[in-house]
Structure formats: structure tokens, C-alpha cells
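User: Can you predict the 3D structure for this chain?
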Amino acid sequence: MPHTFIHPEGWVPPKGYANGVVAKGRMLFTGGIVGWDNTQAKPTFPPTFEAQFEQAISNVLTVVRTAGGKPEDIVRMTVYVTDKREYHASLKAIGATWRKHLGKHYPAMALVQVAALVDEGAKVEIETTAVLEEATP
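Assistant: Here is the predicted structure, written as C-alpha cells:
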């Protein structure tokens, strides 16, 4: 499904995100997804920020795929972190993780630093909006 990415004329071209996305289809909103293990039975967080980020992205994509979507259907993402310095120090690893799971697809994004996340030990939490293809009758 084609999405239209919005980049206002005269603005510096975005790198690693989109300014806006116009999409048509079924909306999927993911809850705040953290880096729990694959069973999602209990929060057993990997020790590093990079490992938690990769597991959280993987978990988001599991939800999107379960709903019948694909990575490029994600049109909006908010990444909550407990320490933006740790995020910035991990950018090389985060970039590699991003390319591994999402390629060159960059939705409209926001990074928000928070004092803490609900799940003890969580360093990153991700919320997304995906627009899936219209269901066929």
C-alpha cells in the first residue's frame, strides 16, 4: 500500500524519520512495547540499551505481522527512553538494528525521555501506529 511521505518544501530533508505520513487503510495502534523476551510472560530485560531496543523493535514487528502487516506499514513511532544520553551513545548499534528490521523505512517519529518506565529495568518502550491494507471482502 503506498503511503505519501510529507516533507515541506524548503525544510531540511529529514534523516532517520519522516515529518508526516498520509495513509489509507486499517489502523493498528500498538501499546507501549518493551524489550521483554519472546514469550512476553515476564519482564526479563537484557542488560544493555542496545539489546532492549532490538527486542522492543522485534516485539513491535511481531504485533504488526500478527495483524497482517509488514514493517513498512508503520507510519508513526514514539520511542520512550529513560536516558537520552544512553540512546545517543548507542546510535551506531541502534542504526544497525533499524536497518536489520526496517531497512530504509522511516515513519514519522518522536523520541521522548521519561523519568522511568512502568516495567522495572526497562530502558526503552516503543509505541507505533501502523496502517494496514484494507481488508478484502
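The helical segments are 49-66, 84-89, 91-102. The beta strands are 4-6, 20-22, 26-29, 33-34, 74-81, 108-113, 124-132.
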